[in-house]
Amino acid sequence: MFIRGTNSNQVKVLIDGIDASDPSNANGSFDFGQLLTYDMARIEVLRGPQSGLYGADAIGGVISITTKGGEGPPRPRDLSKALFRNAE
Question: Would you call 73 exposed, middle or buried from its count of C-beta atoms within 10 A (0-12, 13-18, 19+)?
Answer without folding.
Answer: exposed
